[in-house]
Amino acid sequence: MIEGFKGIFTVGITGASGAIYGVRLTQELLANSYKVHLILTEAAWRVFQEELLLDTSDREAILDELFGNFGGELHTHDLHDYGAPIASGSYQNDGMIIIPCSMGTLSGIAHGASDNLLERTADVMLKEGRKLIIVPRETPLNQLHLENMLRLSKVGAKILPAMPGFYHLPKRWMI
């Protein structure tokens, strides 16, 4: 563990609906003094526009607006930066959460594609036996979706569908 940090996590945000889940998780990790490596897909930026109503023409400004006042340490990575430290099994971290996770990304991970940094980092988590949490956002699910989730579950990933509970009487839904 790095002095001054509780731990190190990688967060992936894909183009599945529910970008707010990934934003809030990242904010909470940073607020609680974690080091966070963040990977956003191009489709995630599109969802930021459509669901969070953000003008993403200045991505650095958006990242600062969303995550700049939370403490911790944020490292953002380009989706095609295969030289990023998180792409290597020798980089020690506590795990990875892909939230929300599109079925396309889930399929790529389930089949070992490693076509981008997000998929490669997930593959590293699995091969090193580290925590990988996948938060799928899709409905209805078809047989391929279910088989890909089962495939990932069998190799150690945790599948945690975004199904918010209402028994705790939530009062706030947005940023």
TrEMBL record:
<dbReference type="Pfam" id="PF02441">
    <property type="entry name" value="Flavoprotein"/>
</dbReference>
<dbReference type="InterPro" id="IPR036551">
    <property type="entry name" value="Flavin_trans-like"/>
</dbReference>
<feature type="domain" description="Flavoprotein">
    <location>
        <begin position="10"/>
        <end position="171"/>
    </location>
</feature>
<dbReference type="GO" id="GO:0016829">
    <property type="term" value="F:lyase activity"/>
</dbReference>
<keyword id="KW-0456">Lyase</keyword>
<dbReference type="InterPro" id="IPR003382">
    <property type="entry name" value="Flavoprotein"/>
</dbReference>
<dbReference type="InterPro" id="IPR004507">
    <property type="entry name" value="UbiX-like"/>
</dbReference>
<keyword id="KW-0285">Flavoprotein</keyword>
<dbReference type="GO" id="GO:0004659">
    <property type="term" value="F:prenyltransferase activity"/>
</dbReference>
<keyword id="KW-0808">Transferase</keyword>
<keyword id="KW-0288">FMN</keyword>
<protein>
    <submittedName>
        <fullName>3-polyprenyl-4-hydroxybenzoate carboxy-lyase UbiX</fullName>
    </submittedName>
</protein>
<keyword id="KW-0637">Prenyltransferase</keyword>
